[in-house]
Structures are given as C-alpha cells and as structure tokens.
Amino acid sequence: MTETGRVLRFVLLSASAGLIEFGSFTLLNEFTSLRYWPCYLIALVLSVLWNFTLNRKFTFRSTANVPRAMLLVCLYYAVFTPLTTWGGDHLAEDLGWNEYVVTILNMLLNLVTEFLYQRYVVYRGTVDSAVKNS
Known about the structure:
The chain has 134 residues and is mostly helical. 79% of the residues lie in helices and 0% in strands. It has one domain (3-122). The mean pLDDT is 92.
C-alpha cells in the first residue's frame, strides 16, 4: 500500500472512531450533568479502543506484538489524554468555549499526532508485515 493510501485509510477509519467519540460525547453532554472532562474522557476511551483495533489490522496491516503495540499506544495516550482533558476542560468550563468546538479541535489534533506516532513509533518496521506474498 502506498503511503497516501495508508493516510486515506487511516483518516476514513478514524472518522468512524470520530463518530463514536462525538456521538458518545454528545449523549453524555446533553443527557447528564457531567462536566466537560468526564464526557470527553469516556468518549475518547471508546474511540481509542475502536481505532486501535481497526488501524492495526487494516491501515498498518502489522503483525507487530499486540501487547507491545498496545503499550506504546497507551504511552501516547498517557501524554495526549491529560493534556487534552485538562486543556479542553479549561477552554470549555473556564473560558466559555463551545464544548463541541473544543472536542472537534481535540479530535483533529488526535488524528494528526496519532497517525504520525503509530506510523513511525508503534508500527515502525512492521507496516504491511501481515500482507501475504502472492
């Protein structure tokens, strides 16, 4: 697969995770009295689980050690999650930004940084290793 094809596939699969994230965020934001941060955090976790599974199989087509790959993704989210959770909560709750604008900005930041991290850190050297030679 070409790198352009890989990016397009990542974006499409991430869009499905984005629907899960945005949909669950909307449900939590509209139908609970939770602050911004727990709504965002729950929605993010749901989308990460979905996205990791699909992108490992269909975008990066990797036979990389799954526990190792999951650990590396957890390390990414150990940095990304607190920054965007606290930052998003500050923007939405303290500065009065629209919660949906903040969530969309976080999702776009996640899309770009996660692709680069997964491509060049998590699956470095194992991209397309699950593709069978004809």
